[in-house]
Amino acid sequence: MADNQTVQAYIDAWTHSIESISELVAPLAEGQWNRATECPGWSVRDVVSHVIGMELELLGDPRPIHSLPRDLRHVTSEFTRYCEVQVDTRRCHTAPEMTAELEYTIIRRARGLRTAKTKPDDEVRWPMGPYTRQLPYHQVLRQRAFDVWVHEQDLRRALGLPGHLDSPGALIARDVLVEGLAKAVAKQAGAPAGSTVVVDVHGAVEFIRTVRVDSAGRGTVEERVPVAPAVQLATDWETYARLACGRIRPESAEVKIEGDEALGRRILENFSVTP
């Protein structure tokens, strides 16, 4: 069970990241909104549109009635189609329109979070297209803090303005991404039963985690480091986050592999844990 202190920590992390996004885009010239990001098919404008759209849906605003063009190659599933509607409706919006809507959305959402009577474990709607479901309030807030931090970093890389790799949102992102390690290693990469895989991350956020695969092929994540793992992967925090969020391919990432290189490469091919 989560408590109010945990909920407030998630809200604080979300606030830090979404206000940082607002500060990043406020001075942008019109042309800078069209810069490509590492999100397939999305520009700076599109990433901000996605952030706005998700927050408006959590506020309970109706979704736009909008038909998508047929030539959007990055729209490959019902989930990406769901996300694209909020994005495509804003592709004709000017820079002032985008910044004004973002600022007003932040004000509305912050007020709603501040006055909410929702308890940490109360079930609330999590709008994710075909994956829409009811989740505990604290999980929804955690996921929004994670998502907004990831998109802040998308924008920072696109604009050449690095920062906040060690912010409160970054620490939440670490925890969310580490939770996906067991599935990536044991199920998706097929690490053999009885093996261990160590992931060593340095930089702004540092941690070492071990995935231990049991006799049934199930993986668990632990902090204890074995003497002789089957493979050890070492990289920096930003690279880890970009890989785990599907922003870059393994061949573009600087990752040191020690031990079973074939297994290591198979793990990196299946490293992304985000939809």
TrEMBL record:
Domain MDMPI C-terminal: 172-263
InterPro entries per the UniProt record, alphabetical: DinB/YfiT-like (IPR034660), Maleyloyr_isom (IPR017517), MDMPI_C-term_domain (IPR010872), MDMPI_metal-binding (IPR024344)
Origin: domain of life: Bacteria
GO MF annotations, alphabetized: isomerase activity; metal ion binding
Gene3D superfamilies: dinb family like domain (1.20.120.450)
A Pfam family annotated for this UniProt entry: MDMPI_N
UniProt keyword terms in alphabetical order: Isomerase, Pyruvate
Annotated Mycothiol-dependent maleylpyruvate isomerase metal-binding domain residues: 16-156
Name the record gives this protein: Maleylpyruvate isomerase family mycothiol-dependent enzyme
